[in-house]
Amino acid sequence: MELWMTEHRSFVFETFIQTRSSVVLTQCRFHTHFNVGQHGAILSRNTILKWVKSFRTTGSVRPGTTRGELQKTSKEFDKLWRPAHVAHALQMSERSVCQILHFDLHYHPYRVMVVQEVLRDDTVLITSDEVHFHLTGSVNKQNFWYWSANNPQELHQRPLHCECERVTVWCRMAQFGIIGPYFFMEGRRTVTVNSQCYMAMLCKFLLPELQRCRIDLTTVWFQQDGATCHTSRESMALLRKHFPGHLISKHGDVEWPP
């Protein structure tokens, strides 16, 4: 009978990760946890490193894991997507599994996102949105990102109730090119985008541009987000008239993807 069991190997590997690869701390915690006396069996440095290497090589803390068993275990792990399942299979704690995934394997958790796949032979998909540009330099934090090794802690001061000059720009992208930009203005004054302004843009700018580009509207999928001006009763009626059955939007034929 082997002196060291799977329970001992699991504890050693978990502790080795928790102590950031400290062999001495792993030995101390092992002897304390299993109440190893002064004349008890000694867990050597080589044994600890051997077990750690074995797990990283085979993915198992069980002694004597063969290549066939490893292949079988790997196929089973392909179906495991929660650390709790992996922890149960390896007889380890879920916390240790998460630490191994993060610190040792440099893995990060990702959520599955449901999106609309566009294939080469699919019909045309056009999507658009509008954005405000403040002429004073104020930044819309939802539309701008900073990429840096450290947080730049940038500060942008702006009045609480901003009445400064700005422009509202709309643009649409599709596989045949870009349509726009379109500025929501009356004379030289920027106007708030409401349902009436949005429909006017569709009728006076977008639809004529699609006709100029000789785009068959029956092959076009129109995509927009859930802004109030986009999804008002009047706007949706106009879009359904020109893109019947091909409207990707909140309350549309296909829901706007997350």
- Can you tell me the number of structural domains? 2
Give me the CATH fold name of the largest domain: Nucleotidyltransferase, domain 5
What is the H-and-E element order? HHHHHHEEEEEHEHHE
Using the 3D structure, state the CATH architecture of the largest domain: 2-Layer Sandwich
Tell me, briefly, the overall form. elongated
Count of β-strands: 7
Going by CATH, the homologous superfamily of the largest domain would be Ribonuclease H-like superfamily/Ribonuclease H
Strand order of the largest sheet: 3-2-1-6-7
Radius of gyration: 30 Å
Mean pLDDT, rounded to whole units?
Answer: 76
The N- to C-terminal Cα distance equals 56 Å
| Fraction of residues in H or I helices | 25-40%
- β content, as a range? 5-15%
Global structural class: alpha/beta
Biggest sheet layout: 5 strands, mixed
Q: Give unreliable regions as ranges.
A: 65-80
CATH structural class of the largest domain? Alpha Beta
SS element count, helices = 9
Explain how this protein is built.
The chain is α/β, with parallel strands linked by helices and 258 residues long. The protein folds into 2 domains: 99 residues, no CATH class; 105 residues, Ribonuclease H-like superfamily/Ribonuclease H (Nucleotidyltransferase, domain 5, 2-Layer Sandwich), CATH 3.30.420. It is built from 9 helices and 7 strands. A 5-stranded mixed sheet has the order 3-2-1-6-7, covered by helices on one side. A two-stranded antiparallel ribbon has the order 4-5. A hairpin with a 2-residue loop joins strand 2 and strand 3. The longest helix has 18 residues. It is elongated and about 90 Å long. The two termini are 56 Å apart. One of its GO terms (molecular function) is nucleic acid binding.
